Automatic annotation (TrEMBL):
Residues 292-316 are annotated as: Disordered. Residues 175-293 form the RapZ C-terminal domain. InterPro entries: P-loop_NTPase, RapZ-like, RapZ-like_N, RapZ_C. GTP binds at D70, A71, R72, T73. It comes from the Bacteria. GO terms for molecular function: ATP binding; GTP binding. ATP binds at G24, L25, S26, G27, A28, G29, K30, S31. Keywords: ATP-binding, GTP-binding, Nucleotide-binding. This is RNase adapter RapZ.
Length: 316
């Protein structure tokens, strides 16, 4: 089963996956919360018409579902929301309400900064719309299972709060990609961190290893036999295991760590594979991509010290 699909299904020992009804005041962060839940493996539906809420809640399934309920919806009624919950909630399919609150002055500031009109005060001050919406939603706030006040929250603060409360145990929302590449073909544009492996001895200069790649055991052993490999590799993996929790905590959804060598076929491939295994052992699910591993050698300047003087030299 693909990881992307498996991540959205509950494990056998996990409690039933609840349906989350995400609601609250306009400007309090509902869109950010739904995106954060989506990153945690929920299927997110926003601005659902109330007429479709009951049929959607009636659909069986063990997947996580987050539904955005907006007071702006035509014929919105907290009573209809609670009625749909009462009709379809069960021990096998619990339904929870996440309510996002915020102080009035902060909401006024946010609408002023974005130059947006409050949806319930198109021709009146934003404060009037905020007060009206707060009154309409008061019953849902009263019965909400989780209330998050975002008055003093940044976007990242809210994402962290969502991850803390609704992430599956051990879940790491960060999508980590390890990439090997060849400098002769350029540094990857989407790389966040880049490590240069050209200080390691080059398998290209061994005729028996030249046709192979870093995916072959002989090349991997050759790279790892360099005395500089072990201390450098340990330092790199140690640095990554120190940095990755910080990136995840700050709400980063994607991180690409690139390892480069001259041609992108030998050293960078071997190191990326080893780093992927080491990080996976630490609990960091990752994918390893080899951008240039299958590409043929290209003309380039030789690296100093990799071949004897007068010998014709070329890149990996």
């Amino acid at each position: 089963m693909p990881d992307a699909v498996a991540a959205n299904l509950p494990m056998k020992d996990e409690p039933p996956a609840p349906v989350l009804l995400v609601t609250g005041l306009s400007g309090a962060g509902k869109s950010t919360a739904l995106k954060a839940l989506e990153d945690l493996g929920y299927e997110a539906v926003d601005n659902l018409p109330l007429s479709l809420l009951g049929p959607l809640l009636a659909v069986p399934g063990g997947h996580r579902l987050a539904i955005g309920i907006d007071a702006r919806t035509r014929a919105f009624s907290p009573e209809l929301v609670l009625q749909a919950m009462a009709e379809h909630a069960s021990p096998a399919r619990p339904i929870r309400i996440l309510y996002l609150d915020c102080s009035g002055p902060e909401l006024v500031r946010r609408f002023s900064e974005t130059r947006r009109r409050h949806p319930m005060a198109q021709d009146r001050p934003a404060g009037d719309g905020i007060a009206l919406e707060r009154e309409i939603l008061s019953e849902l706030r009263r019965v909400a299972d989780v209330v998050i006040d975002t008055t003093d929250f940044s976007t990242n603060d809210l994402r962290r709060a969502i991850s803390t409360r609704f992430g599956a145990p051990g879940h790491k929302a960060l999508t980590l990609t390890l990439m090997s590449f060849g400098y002769s073909r350029g540094v990857p544009r989407d790389a966040d961190l880049v490590f240069d492996m050209r200080f390691l001895k080059n398998p290209h200069w061994d005729p028996a290893l030249r046709p192979l790649t870093g995916l072959d055991a002989a090349v991997s052993e050759h790279v790892k036999s360099d005395p500089a490999y072990a201390p450098a590799f340990g330092t790199i993996v140690g640095l990554l295991t120190m940095l990755l929790p910080g990136y995840a905590k700050e709400g980063r959804a994607y991180l690409t760590v690139a390892f480069g060598c001259t041609g992108g076929r030998h050293r960078s491939v071997a190191v990326a594979e080893a780093a992927g295994a080491a990080l996976a052992a630490e609990g960091w699910v990752n994918s390893v991509v080899h951008r240039d591993q299958a590409a043929g050698a290209v003309d380039d300047e030789p690296e100093a010290g990799q071949a004897a003087a007068g010998e014709r030299k070329g890149p990996e």
